[in-house]
């Protein structure tokens, strides 16, 4: 006598789970150009590493003698796996079963909270959400006989995880409700242009509530959610590229906040000095240049991973490496708004600073910011408030920070590039300039009466600007030790590497969760 019949039943139930919503539902899913959740896990994770948890969960039918006839699996697949050899908790909606809507069991596997998040929390490993579902449905009220109060199955664990382990979400279909909320509660998110959408509620709800006729792409496609709203960080061409971005992001992250980011040997010489850095900044102060090219010449070759490249374009936020060490690079982009900080770039910079501070990633600011964006539209958009939120978050940074002024560093936006909680290392290129505001606007405001009283106001204004601009030389500030050093641009890479190497020893003494105090403006 043995337990072979029961073992056979387990095997049969697992086989039904692998069938997901059935051959027809899977075929329809493939016709839309999408992979199933099991295929996605297989493509993303290391081969053979996925250990499913809760694979027997579902809705079964039985015959009169109590023998199981079939099981429709729960519309969520999750478990443990490895990505590039590192353990992760991974899960996603199975759209072939009821469109990936939430399973109504008393205990959830995932989708909105759920056991997959418990795995990440308890084992202190990254969480990867593969999102393709609509969340709750009103049909569940019929089965339960009552409606559930919001928050009973809430986001408590989702929120807690953001201070513990890396959380990554890939939106790979249409997401609304709880799955959409979880996509936002991520350190990094990515979606597929043309085949992924995300919104608080879909077109039927919008039509019923507002009378607006709109399709799901116009409502929540990448053009809206990535490029315009910044709801999701990055957009890619297909699912394969989405998986590559997930892997790439995790390669810069520690397993949890109690560890340091991993160093890898990139093979790039630490003492590499790029001759092109000497001429990349034009002599003409109003002429733009390619900040992305500048970054590439300084950091390890091939190591740049940009986050939100199509949103808040006046600032560039990238993970990169210096001598294999992970760094966060925040660089103003003179090719968009002259590098001025607007509402979108402010929000983008806040998220990136908090990401790096949470996971002990040193920050390098490459500064060319003329200040906050000005004008009526900027004031209506609350640029000043969002800009001061950047200053507030920068004032709470605890990771080692290096400020390198490439050209302009003015006003309160310039304040947001300095970390006053550390030793506040400020460096500059000879092209650097700084102050409360640029000389041009400052002269017009401070010497208005002098200029107006002059027989030639325009000439007088130019005379005053010429006089004061002589005082803006970075070398004069260095004489007073009001900036720590002015360097030859070609020295940038080896100098930064020296400081980043030293910062690793300091980071080892400050591991763990980062407390946040105060009220954000």
Describe this protein's structure.
The chain has 521 residues and is an alpha/beta fold. It has 2 domains: 41-52 and 75-252, 2-enoyl-CoA Hydratase, Chain A, domain 1 (Alpha-Beta Complex); 275-435 and 473-507, 2-enoyl-CoA Hydratase, Chain A, domain 1 (Alpha-Beta Complex). It is built from 21 helices and 19 strands. Strands 12, 13, 14, 15, 16, 17, 18 and 19 form an 8-stranded mixed β-sheet that branches. A 7-stranded mixed β-sheet has the order 1-4-5-6-7-9-11, sandwiched between helices. α17 crosses α19. The chain starts with a helix and ends in a 14-residue tail after the last helix. 43% of the residues are buried. The model has no long low-confidence stretch (mean pLDDT 91).
- List unreliable stretches of 5+ residues: none
Number of domains: 2
Largest sheet: 8 strands, mixed
- Mean pLDDT across every amino acid position: 91
Principal-axis shape: elongated
- Give me the CATH architecture of the largest domain, please: Alpha-Beta Complex
Global Rg: 27 Å
Tell me how many strands there are: 19
Kindly name the structural category. alpha/beta
Strand content is 15-25%
Give the helix tally.
Answer: 21
Helix content: 25-40%
CATH class of the largest domain: Alpha Beta
For the record, what is the CATH homologous superfamily label of the largest domain?
A: 2-enoyl-CoA Hydratase, Chain A, domain 1
**Which topology of the largest domain does CATH recognise?**
2-enoyl-CoA Hydratase, Chain A, domain 1
Ends apart, CA distance between termini: 71 Å
